[in-house]
Amino acid sequence: MDKTSKTMIHGSVVLLSLILLPGCGILDFFKKKEEPQKVEAVKAEGVVLCSIDSKPVIHEGSFNKNINQMLQASPYFRGAGADALPLSIKRKFFDELVKQELIIVDANKGNIEKDAEFIKAYHEMKDLLKRSLKIQFFEKKLYDGIKIEASDVQKHYSENKEHYVKVAGGVLVSGIKFDQDAQATSFVGNVKSHVDEFDKLAKENKSGKFKEFGRVSKESRGFNFEAVPAPIKEAVLAAHKLPMVEKVKVGKEFWVIKAADKKETVYFNLDEIKQQIEGMLKNNKFKDALDGKIKELRGSHAVVVNEDYFKEKKSAEGEKKENGESKEDKEGPAAEGKPVESGAATAAQNAAKPVQNQQKAATA
Questions:
Q1: Are 78 and 72 in contact (CB under 8 A)?
Q2: Which of these, 25, 53, 245, 284, has the minimum number of CB atoms within 10 Å of its CB?
Q3: How many helices (H) and strands (E) does the chain have?
Q4: CA 195 to each of CA 182, 248, 273: distance values in angstroms, whole numbers, following the listed order
Q5: What is the pLDDT of residues 344-356, one digit of tens each?
Q6: H or E element that contains 165
Q7: Residue 259: which residues within 8 A CB-CB, separation 6 or more?
Q8: 50 backbone dihedrals φ, ψ, rounded to 5°
Q9: Per residue in 36-76, pLDDT tens?
């Protein structure tokens, strides 16, 4: 098996082990022939959702089972069921299953189960699925043991109610930006008596740039709210009478804004989102519980990690520099082609100089 094929097969194995865990229908493809009754029992659940060549391949029961397994495999959706997903999401998931069933039909037609590479990959996949299932059961047992009290849900809702907005309220704000104060002042004078036509006049004005900010309130969140300059927010929230037209300086720019149509923010009632809050709190507790359990397991077992494997490999020259030892320091002048004099040789030369001087004087 070449490297590319092996990588593709392993990639598919990982994907399938995460999304289509044992019991999801994928193992039905690999079931031995001595288990036809069990296969038929699983497939016979609910109405037929898809047939290929007049043969039922996806039933309502197996479809929902696939979704539930996928949700339980993710710590973010654990506890949720197929009924919690919008039909649009379920349909996308269903379309993926149909693609897989078409591939399986073609694979069966080509007797893929007798292929040597397939058999080898299948045994590798079984090991991955078994490993994944062990982890899933471990986490499920831990998750199922977590209980969320009604008081916890109520406390979270009371402290975070502003985040559960059903219909955004606030004041509807629009404005026009000018580069010069005189332009803004002139526009204010013209629009004061035509507040209802503010947006129309602002869009027609060639000296400024019109912008709609949407609804602004104390509870506003998100990108659109963050895009509203702070001075404009302050002016709008401080307004006592609406509609209001006012000039606001933002840095070196001059804005003329209009605020009108104030509406109260509508929040979700606790009963409407109780299940979602409970699931979120349970997931948060599960993460903490899992971290604690892993810490406990580390204390119960001797875990040895080869940290050297994960260290960056350094060159020999890099190690010398890190130790403060350069090439020149180690090899000395000889490394540059310079003669090296020993201490004894230098002393002999110095002692010979007076004798040489005397000889020169006698000759003279």
A1: yes
A2: 53
A3: 15, 8
A4: 20, 16, 40
A5: 444 445 544 544 5
A6: strand 165-167
A7: 171, 172, 173, 216, 235, 236, 239, 242, 243, 244, 246
A8: -155, 140
A9: 455 455 445 789 999 999 999 999 988 888 888 888 777 66
What are the CA-CA distances from residue 154 to residues 161, 259, 335, 358 (Å)?
10, 35, 79, 110
* Amino acid identity, position 10: H
Q: Which residues of the chain have pLDDT under 70?
A: 1-44, 75-79, 219-226, 315-364
Q: Residue 180 — φ and ψ, nearest 5°?
A: -120, 145
Residue 332's region, left for phi above 0, alpha for psi from -120 to 50, else beta, is left
Which tokens is 136 given? 């899933």
Please state which of the four CATH numbers 3.10.50, 3.30.70, 1.10.287, 3.30.700 is assigned to the domain occupying 165-267: 3.10.50
Q: Token digits for 196?
A: 């209802």
Domain with CATH 3.10.50 in the chain: 165-267
Neighbours of 196 (CB within 10 A): 10
Q: CA-CA distance, 198 to 187, in Å (whole number)?
A: 10
Q: What is the pLDDT of residue 260?
A: 93
pLDDT of residue 319: 63
* pLDDT in the model for residue 15: 39
Quick one: DSSP state of residue 180? S
DSSP symbol at 112 = G
Angle at 166 between CA 283 and CA 168, to 5 degrees: 125
CA dist list (Å): 12 to 16, 58, 115, 124, 356: 6, 21, 17, 12, 91
Residue 362 to residue 349: CA distance in whole angstroms: 21
Q: Which helix (H) or strand (E) holds 152?
A: helix 150-160
Are 265 and 219 within 8 A, CB to CB?
yes
The region that residue 311 occupies, defined by phi over 0 for left and psi between -120 and 50 for alpha, beta otherwise, is: beta
DSSP 118-151: HHHHHHHHHHHHHHHHHHHHHHHHHHHT----HH
pLDDT at 32: 41
